[in-house]
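Hi Y.,

Following your request, here is the sequence exactly as I used it, all 127 residues.
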Amino acid sequence: MEKRKLIWYWIITAILSFCIFSGGLAQAVQVKGVVEGFKPLGYPNYFISFIGVWKVLGVIAILIPKFRLLKEWAYAGIFFAMSGAVISHIASDDVSVKIIAPFLLAVFTVLSWYFRPPDRKIILANQ
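Below is the corresponding structure, written out as C-alpha cells. Let me know if you'd prefer a different format.
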C-alpha cells in the first residue's frame, strides 16, 4: 500500500506543480490573457504579480527535499490561493467554468499534502 500511496503522491504533485508553477509564472510576468481573466474580479494588477511569485515559490518549496515546515506553509498558501480564487469568482458573479480549475487544484493540493511521504512530513514527538 505504501508504494501505491507514493505513486499517487508523485502523480498528483506533478500535475499540481505544473499547473500552479505555469499559472504563477504567467501571473508573475503579467501575460495579457491572465490579466484579462483577473479584470472581473476587481483586483489591481500588482496583486496578480504578487500572487504569481508566491505560487512559483510555493511549488519550489513543495518539490525540494527537506524544509518540512516550509512545505506545510506552501501547501497552506496554495490551498488558500486556490480556494480564494473560487470564492472571488463566486463573489464577483463571475461563476462559470473558470472556477473548475482552481477548485480542482485546491483538491489536488489537499491530496498531495495527504499522500506526501514521511520524509516530507512534520512528525510531532508525542505521536
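The helical segments are 2-28, 32-38, 45-63, 68-91, 100-115.

Thanks again,
Q.
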